[in-house]
Design brief:
Largest sheet: 2 strands, antiparallel
Helix content: 25-40%
Number of helices: 3
Length: 74
């Protein structure tokens, strides 16, 4: 997972629900589901720690500027 994040494939990730680590959400940058499955398949995490329940497209409609973006816009 660390390498996928360093390569900017995983954009956001973390536990969801009760925060007990049983479920997590990953937001990735990919052209399609096949690319996602291929990239996750080569990750060394064992299947019992990492199982994909669903893959769904997401369109970002609302996004606030970060402080870095606001100050660099000048």
């Amino acid at each position: 997972m660390d390498l996928l994040t360093e390569e900017r494939f995983i954009i956001l990730g973390g536990p969801i629900g009760e925060g007990d680590g049983e479920n997590a959400l990953l937001v990735v940058e990919a052209k399609d589901e096949a690319e996602i499955r291929a990239r996750l398949a080569v990750d060394p995490w064992p299947e019992e720690l990492h199982a994909t329940e669903s893959i769904r497209p997401w369109t970002v409609l609302l996004r606030a500027e970060t402080q870095g973006e606001a100050s660099s816009a000048g």
